[in-house]
Fold each of these.
Amino acid sequence: MQSWEGLDAFVAVAETGNFTRAASRLGVSISQVSREINRLEERLGTQLLVRNTRRVALTENGRLFEQRCRQLIDDREAAFDSVISGKDAIKGLIRLTCAVAYGERTITPIIGRFVAEHPEISVDMELTNRVLDLVADGVDLGVRIGEITDARLGRVQLGSRSLHVCAAPAYVERHGAPASSSDINAHACLLGTAQRWQFKTAGQENQIAPQGRWRCNSGFSVLDAAIQGLGLCQLPDFYVQDHLRDGTLVELLAEERPSDQAIWAVFPKRSPQPSRIAALIRFLQVNLSLSSEIRHVDDHNAAR
């Protein structure tokens, strides 16, 4: 038995919680994962995992051994990575995830440019509005907005986004504009997935539950309804900035625009971080910063 045999399988099962997902992550059969772990337990003379029909749990010895194995694997990857980095090459597979609309509109084009600049990089990208378990699902990097609470994840801020209350000029001509956020429910509100709209009034963050007879879980459908003049919407900047620029929408209550929301790169904690992941994070920071600068110039021009 080779010294490393079974360690990757064991850590994969410990992180994913079952043999099926561990086998998928490693690209091997479930029987191979089971066989390698059985041999590892025999070699160590102790049980590492408690198996049941729903989930695999670590024994106390398994928990201690998993911590040491994880560090060994990280050190091994770092050793390979240091040689690759020494050759000025960034290579390998990056698995990443992001919310659907933000991913399609903003993140995917940036990832495309990154792959074009690094021909030995491969990406496996899943756009989903579900919050994936990055550790269990074997995902290298997630782009998320708002608060990050999972202690297993590291994070780096990539940028920020702003929320805007908007309407078509035709709607404002017919119904007028709200004088303050407290007037919101006197207007037709176009509702999306957010249960509350965010505002910052007199320096204080506050929320209002909007009322309306039009709701859709697609931000682009909410945007289309606003452009048609059906009512007010509150959407992130990447949905509305082009329409604010060309005048098909106008921003309302800009003086009560809420504080910007942080955009994060989140990743399973590893020491040290693989160079391909660090390079992608830096690339995202630079490109999202450029996008933010363009957005702020547009906001300034629109206010003039």
Note: Residues 275-303 form the longest helix (29 residues).
Amino acid sequence: MMRSASRQSLDALLDKEREVFGGRISAATLTTLSGELYAIADLLVRQPRLRRTLGDPAASAQRRSDLLEQLLSGKVEKHTLTLATTAVGLRWSTPWDLTDALEDAGDEALFAAAEKDRKLDTVEDELFRFERIMQSESSAVALLDDAVADADRRNALLDELLSEKVNAVTLALLHHAVASTRKRSVLLAVDDLLDKAAVRQERSIARVVSAVALTDAQQQRLEAALTDMYGRTISVRTAVDPEVRGGLVVRVGDEVIDGSIATRLAQARSTIGGQSN
């Protein structure tokens, strides 16, 4: 968890990102920008001395920014250089927070690219469905999370699962989630990406699992009920799982509302078992 100084710096960097991403910049340029930001973050992971130097709060902010500009000038897009030098010039609680902030900026650049192409809802839905698939495929998750295996090999597996089946932005986000050494697991990374997509659209996501597919009318009523319950706009993302049997399992952030028949049956069996003892 980021401490106060890093949270303030992250907010300042997000303001700069909105300024850059909201300007007259194409989706293709944003995609390039994302790759370059990821590459800079990866460089800091691989170069501990450089990471400590650029993230040292005791050193002059201007000196840190100038150093990075010397390293990157002529090698990356001007927007990349602007964001990277802005990030380095801010005060971070630890150098690792700087690295994570650059990775986050790469994610945000891809989301901005999807938004430019009016595909943000598509990307969000594909991430949710990938999350649901991975939750039921523990062997695939283990392979994608295998830190011993080469990142290219893990991403080749991801391509086998998803290539030509999802939007290019979705695939790029997942490629980075799998390759990054800063992500604890692919499922946690996807969960974080879904939260970012929701924040970008000024709403929250409700992940809903049901035994059968909800109709459009049912989904709209559920969105309205959850929006009223939480006092903020809620967007529903649905998945089907026959093991739920009936009812719904709804997750909003860390809160789970489990109204499934399967859970009620399990609770009943537990109660009966306890009484028999």
Note: The longest strand covers residues 204-210.
Amino acid sequence: MQHAVGSPLPPPHQPGHGPAAGWSPAAHHPGAHPGPHQSSAPVPPPPPGHPVQPAHPTVPQHVPVPPAPDSTGHVPLPPGGPVAAPGAPPVPSAAPDPSATTLAVLLIGPAGAGKTSVAKYWADHRRTPTAHISLDDVREWVRSGFADPQSGWNDHSEAQYRLARRTCGFAARNFLANGISCILDDAIFPDRPVVGLGGWKRHVGPGLLPVVLLPGLDVVLERNAERTGNRRLTDEEVARIHGRMAGWYGSGLPIIDNSQLDVPETARVLDDVLARAIASPPKW
């Protein structure tokens, strides 16, 4: 299943707000005060001639407590990846094996690129536990009140996309925190970096590895024609989406043209691309 983008397509966004400022502890004011087991008996006066030291008043101490570490469930979240699986030996950087590494992968592409099919196959055939998280599936959890972008892109459809991405990101972080890799698929436009790649990076973490699937227009038109229901788009919509996706060329992200590849072959190429990305993460 693919990302269904309606007409009109979502417009480019202006840069959004940055992340919230981090916690900053208050200053610590020194001062002595009796502990729970200290006696409150009066102190005898010093002998004659002994210098008298000024008394230090008891000052209540309010030590600031930092907020709880960023966590999901009962397991602290990893600081971005690739995240080593619990108990797994480190993967040599000279010859990384993506099938034995805990990863978070974002598969990008237009409708009809084969994202969902490749993501499912890749997740099914890995040596380590792996979850597939589809943005469209999560969007369609909303039944009553579902904002279908094919009925027109508006504030409601935009809000539901944002909510689905946050939900997918939460799920991915929880899987990673428990040593389970994940692959997410979404149709992200290169002219919407803040809500696209930037949003996924905020939701999942800086270790997210994005890869673009971009077959030829004739291929995505043929695949789209085989769809049914609200996942099938008009040829005009498919052409517009594919044209905007071409903006990923020159972005620095790895791009796979799977026009002549079946699903298993594309998954093998994806492993090769990820091995290189692990050794030298893309700048994005």
Note: The domain at 101-279 is CATH 3.40.50.300 (Rossmann fold).
Amino acid sequence: MPISPYVREAGAGPTVLCLHANASHSGQWRPLMDPLSGRFRVLAADTYGAGKSPPTPPGRPLRLADEVELIHALLASAPEGVHLVGHSYGAAIAFKAALMHPPRVLSLAVYEPTLFAMVDRDTPRPNGTEGIQQVVREGIADLERGDAEAAARAFIDFWMGEGSYERTPPERRPSIVDSCRNLPQWSHALLTEPATLDELRQVSVPVLYMVGGRSPESSRCVAERVIPVLPNVRWVDFPDLGHMAPVTHPEPVNAAIAAFLDKVAAPTA
């Protein structure tokens, strides 16, 4: 029996599928789903091990291709195709879906896809990925010592700034800690992804690529390499926002996504 993700759904019209960041879940897209649902069918899926979706497949390391296969039925549910929205890990999955199932993907609206393997394959180190590489090493070591909270603290503070984990409301921390137990799987999927920058040149659909001016170098270095190879891309820089802006400052990010979708996927009467 096929494994299915947990999915939130709202509205009717052209299909928009939203994919969340690591240490998050589909609920992060509620502020986008509500305003879009009047003119789009909006889906938001939990990735492996997140929210209410099943745990990562046993027996081998997780791959981005596995995440794409998890949402395959959602991609196939719209005969006319799907518009993908993704943040961080979810944005990396969105690009992988566009490579694996090009006829089904009509556009991409992404905020800082974490395609670190493409940077490593393109440029010898030091290349900007050192920060995330260090966090992964430290986080996995914390998990091996049985200290999942230390792994979560390191991960959240890297992406959101020093002290961010301690400022997180105590009632929200347990779910973040539990999610960060997936760090070895996430890192394997992102750091060993075989797709290349040359392959991304074949992604001809419209792409909205968003970056934050206050994001770590590890995410901005991906943008520096990916944006130039995309044939149909619009780049938007939010100078005062960071990597987690779709969660911490959803209004400007979601406004840019909605404007993009209205342009490329305006429902027909």
Note: DSSP finds 14 helices and seven strands in the chain.
